[in-house]
Amino acid sequence: MTGELEHKFEVGILEREGRQKLPQEIKDELKSSGMMDEKGKLKLKGVSPKMLKRMKQEYVECPVLEDQIHFIQCFVCPNFQSRVMGKVLCKGDKI
Ligand code: SF4
């Protein structure tokens, strides 16, 4: 049976003009897990350049961190389950 993914929150994905900076510690994490090269270029599996460009302008009001979180950070968060129709399905565990 293919039930719905278990998640606690559905978090709306918001957009703002221009690029947003990723916090340095997130960049370091992305680099150490091979999702960003030394020049700071993102390498996310299965994400097209067009999609990536869009993702760079998106953010969420994260209910766990209670802060605005860059969508890329959200995308690689352990709580991230999937993106469905403009929403993130979030496990909602403490991080
Ligand atoms: S997946 Fe992570 S960053 Fe995204 S909304 Fe959930 S806790 Fe926040």
Structure description:
This protein has 3 helices and 5 strands. With 95 residues, the protein is an alpha+beta fold. The protein has one domain (9-90). It has a 5-stranded antiparallel sheet. It starts with 8 loop residues before the first strand and ends in a 5-residue tail after the last strand. The mean pLDDT is 92. The site of iron/sulfur cluster has 13 residues, from strand 2 and strand 5. Iron/sulfur cluster is lined by residues 11, 60, 62, 64-65, 69, 74, 77, 79-80, 88, 90, 95.
Number of domains: 1
Structural class by sheet pairing and helices: alpha+beta
Q: How would a crystallographer describe the biggest sheet?
A: 5 strands, antiparallel
Which ligands, by name, code or SMILES, are bound?
iron/sulfur cluster
End-to-end gap: 30 Å
Tell me, rounded to a whole number, the average pLDDT. 92
- Major sheet strand order: 3-2-1-5-4
Classify the beta-strand content into a percent band. 25-35%
CA-atom Rg in angstroms = 13 Å
What are its keywords?
alpha+beta, 22% helix, 95 residues, single chain, binds iron/sulfur cluster, five-stranded antiparallel β-sheet
Q: SSE layout and pairings?
A:
Blueprint: E1 9-15, H1 24-32, H2 49-55, E2 58-62, E3 67-70, H3 71-75, E4 80-84, E5 87-90
Antiparallel strand pairs: 1-2, 1-5, 2-3, 4-5
Bound molecules: iron/sulfur cluster.
